[in-house]
Amino acid sequence: xxxxxxxxxxxxxxxxxxxxxxxxxxxxxxxxxxxxxxxxxxxxxxxxxxxxxxxxxxxxxxxxxxxxxxxxxxxxxxxxxxxxxxxxxxxxxxxxxxxxxxxxxxxxxxxxxxxxxxxxxxxxxxxxxxxxxxxxxxxxxxxxxxxxxxxxxxxxxxxxxxxxxxxxxxxxxxxxxxxxxxxxxxxxxxxxxxxxxxxxxxxxxxxxxxxxxxxxxxxxxxxxxxxxxxxxxxxxxxxxxxxxxxxxxxxxxxxxxxxxxxxxxxxxxxxxxxxxxxxxxxxxxxxxxxxxxxxxxxxxxxxxxxxxxxxxxxxxxxxxxxxxxxxxxxxxxxxxxxxxxxxxxxxxxxxxxxxxxxxxxxxxxxxxxxxxxxxxxxxxxxxxxxxxxxxxxxxxxxxxxxxxxxxxxxxxxxxxxxxxxxxxxxxxxxxxxxxxxxxxxxxxxxxxxxxxxxxxxxxxxxxxxxxxxxxxxxxxxxxxxxxxxxxxxxxxxxxxxxxxxxxxxxxxxxxxxxxxxxxxxxxxxxxxxxxxxxxxxxxxxxxxxxxxxxxxxxxxxxxxxxxxxxxxxxxxxxxxxxxxxxxxxxxxxxxxxxxxxxxxxxxx
Length: 604
Fold this sequence. Notes:
With 604 residues, the protein is α+β, with helices and mostly antiparallel strands.
């Protein structure tokens, strides 16, 4: 189908005589069958004993329609307006010259029954409610200027000179439509409120209403709302229309990213962009997405981390660099993982991991204070457990190996022996003793990661730094200056989940090559998330990387904690979803289940 010429594709479309649309043959048949079912329902209803006639408006009758019936009737009405231009329902321009955010501030002093006809306001928004009080008085509740609510009062006697008649302005307008309003500010004076000593509602008294874009579908009922979780993710536009909490979450996300960017800019960092397509997937322990570059006839990978090119920039005389952007990892999806996600990574020359612990506390604690007005927030898990989190510095610090020794009751081998096969076999026994399971491949790094998740991460509700990881878990981190076999690395955890990862960078090219070779050994043992040897990066190190510290923050998770959402899909505008037709697919017996990864270092 994709190879057909455009004219052939059009030739395969068929006219839907009801809506005037050109659709595929299968879609046309689907619509015709639905209309037949609707017609039978109407025949059945017509055969029923007649009920007492009740005078209703066209809009009231439309409430009884099915979604398909409403769409067809509304489509016919709008198609007629398109043909007649009476009025044209999709005008090119409306001069919105007033921000609804300022309405209460500028005109809140008006008393009940007072108006300011010297001010002409032109506003726009979507209708969430339309109600009539007789044939000459209408009220619209709209939202405009990023969700600000306003009441529009329309009276027949207020129609301005040159505007269409009152009925003609309003008959074709329905709930969900986007309208332009020309009017003046004032406050209503309803008797019911005045009798209680209350003020009327600050409103815009319309002199003309203009349809800017009709909504062809019924909006979900105001009372029941739009709550279906999967449909909310699939139809985020409708979710944003119906659920202000959703819009607030994403505006909070924007504020968080702006704060981080402003903090780094003020600290002297420079924002850069690095490639998304790479010949080698490096910079993190993760499974990449693969693609193929046709012009070069070569396989490429979507980046799993921007770390290596950012460090090359430090080699190239940048002192402080950062990047905020999307990463892609072909791993399991769960409540805290999505195949594509947003991070901030920065690299600072002449700093070490101790400096970055202080910077992390300063940045994140300051962000929380700025955003919420306090250092204390709450977070509720999927199981209904509520954590009270104190983000104020200083944060708790936990050394990994001593904490695992205390939890397991076992003395671990020296750090410089953790990479051996003997240690791997010994760790298998420890895992069995403490009843912790690690799926294959059971590499030392994966088993240590599992133990850390079980015994240390579970204690990290308030912000906690887990520090001094073994070299075998940290192929890009610098050796600890006083503890052989360990590295100068930390991970920051909140609510038992990792939000940041940082270390003093390994800048010794000989040691870096050995670390890459160890990663290659782990890949040979079956760990498809182990890193590859990157000769370009090694060559850059040979030119000299100054003492440097690097840092990465998971923005999606931080947004989850600060907006109290336990699912990552709630903080991604368009999370990845399976096609709807696969929703009810029955699993084949014996087929491999999709892997859902643990919360652990390889998946951060």
